[in-house]
Specification:
19 strands, binds flavin-adenine dinucleotide, alpha/beta, FAD/NAD(P)-binding domain, single chain, five-stranded parallel sheet
Length: about 450
């Protein structure tokens, strides 16, 4: 079978790899000059680093298996997480139950309720109830208004902007449930986060090497313009130079809006599903510093007057000795695609960020900065609203032999490399099974 895979993020790469391993003739088309999509990297002090901070949980079993399979298992490290909240001018560590007990911005009764909420969600496997209600309504009803206003509301606002009150409780359930599940020794156990020493580019590069060595036609810098179909069946893709490449099946591992522009006519219901899911885009400034800003790896900033949602100090996770002595800080925002920040230059953004960093550490100064980079990640986080199961598009599209695999289809878990890889593998399997079924149906002697 000849398969065209569109999109060289980790979902498209995983689909291509599994199809290649089963002996199929695969072409992988990626618009940008490199593979990996949102797992793109650049170099700091001689070591590669993710443009967008990345770590794994122990529940990310699919990617961990793939990393082992690619011979990179010995590069994985598991490190105690250092999570904190910056609120009312103070950094509060937020890892253990004791940290929660000491979180004085919240009245004691609400701290207890917040702790109980975590324990309850950890135990609950029956997430269907959480599909039908927003996180705001569920928390206000079952925990307390204050816990929503002081804790979850500002975080949801930071991540989802004006859509903060539309996010389904199932999204928050999956975050909390999986995070607790990743603590092998139970809720009192400290959380550990995983990192591939040398960056996640190691597995992306090894996958690319194996794809090329296995005969996959990997074409970077090749933005697919159109998917062709005849009599309701996908027949191939059209490349930027107008060349038509024939294929028996097409896997589109790209965001829905991009897919819709290149797809042959679908059905009104499928079009509606493609349009139904909104996205937040990511804006991430990475700075290297002479000194650490704080002792926290992941600092939530639940304060709408601050110009960023979170600070991720990577070198409080993987030490600065791996990056030529640089201390690395990600200044992170998720924003609506039309947010004004996307129109600002790096210097204009820095003029906003710099005074805010000083409120976190008054000793901080621009002289600490060695280098700065600005990364924009379109289609970074789908917005999971209530009754999402009825809204998301299927992997099998209404056109025979045409499949869609993007982050809007990951559910009920939140998006992440693990689930994109799992989805890529599952869609590859669907392609193979459908092809075998079609071959059986059309074989001489098949009964109509
Ligand atoms: C800020 C941030 C932090 C994150 N943190 C973590 C984390 O800590 N842990 C974790 O596991 N995950 C994390 N993730 C999520 C993870 O990066 C994604 O789940 C995963 O990379 C998505 O892969 P994908 O292949 O589904 O999509 P993408 O990476 O978006 O790939 C889609 C690809 O399609 C290509 N494309 C688009 N149009 C065309 C076209 N016309 N022709 C050809 N190619 C095209 C794009 O260039 C892109 O490469 C994070 C993401 C962000 C943004």
């Amino acid at each position: 079978m000849k398969v065209a895979v569109i999109g060289g993020g980790v979902a498209g790469m995983a689909a291509s790899y599994r199809l290649m391993q089963q002996g199929h003739d695969v072409a992988l088309y990626e618009a940008s000059p490199y593979l990996g999509g949102l797992v793109r990297t650049f170099e700091v002090g001689g070591t590669r680093l993710e443009a967008f901070y990345h770590h794994l949980f122990s529940t990310d079993t699919t990617i961990l298996r793939l990393i082992d399979e690619l011979g990179l298992g010995d590069r994985m490290r598991w490190i105690d997480s250092k999570v904190g909240w910056f609120t009312r001018g103070t950094i509060y560590p937020f890892v253990t139950p004791l940290d929660l007990a000491r979180f004085s911005p919240l009245p004691l009764v609400d701290r207890v309720k917040l702790g109980l909420m975590g324990l309850q969600l950890r135990k609950r496997d029956d997430w269907e109830e959480f599909e039908r209600i927003t996180a705001k309504d569920w928390i206000e009803k079952n925990v307390s208004k204050n816990v929503f206003e002081q804790v979850w509301g500002p975080l949801l606002h930071g991540k989802y902007g004006d859509a903060y009150d539309q996010v389904a409780m199932v999204w928050l359930w999956s975050k909390i449930h999986l995070r607790f599940a990743s603590r092998k020794g139970g809720p009192l156990q400290k959380e550990q986060l995983g990192y591939l020493m040398g960056s996640f580019a190691l597995y992306v590069d090894e996958l690319e090497r194996r794809l090329r060595a296995g005969g996959v036609d990997v074409r970077t810098g090749t933005s697919v313009q159109q998917i062709t179909a005849e009599r309701g069946r996908a027949t191939g893709v059209v490349l930027p130079d107008g060349a038509k490449q024939r294929a028996d099946a097409v896997v589109a591992a790209v965001p829905s809006a991009i897919f819709k522009k290149m797809a042959p006519p679908l059905t009104p219901d499928y079009d509606r599903r493609l349009d139904a899911v909104g996205w937040q885009f990511a804006l991430c400034m990475v700075v290297t510093m002479k000194h650490p800003l704080s002792h926290i790896y992941w600092m939530n900033i639940p304060d709408q007057s601050m110009p960023f949602l979170a600070l991720v100090e990577h070198t409080n996770f993987i030490g600065p000795e791996h990056y030529g002595g640089n201390h690395i800080l990600y200044i992170s925002n998720y924003l609506a695609p039309d947010h004004e920040y996307f129109g600002l230059s790096e210097d204009q953004l820095w003029a906003l960020f710099e005074p805010a960093l000083r409120t976190i550490n008054p000793a901080f100064s621009s002289d600490w900065i060695n280098e700065r980079w600005l990364f924009k990640g379109p289609y970074a986080q789908p917005i999971i609203t209530t009754n999402y199961r009825d809204k998301r598009p299927d992997h099998r599209t209404p056109v025979d032999g045409l499949y869609l695999a993007n982050m809007t289809q990951i559910y009920p878990e939140d998006r992440g490399q693990n689930y994109s890889i799992k989805m890529g593998e599952e869609v590859a399997q669907m392609v193979v099974e459908d092809y075998a079924q079609r071959a059986a149906d059309t074989a001489p002697g098949a009964v109509a």
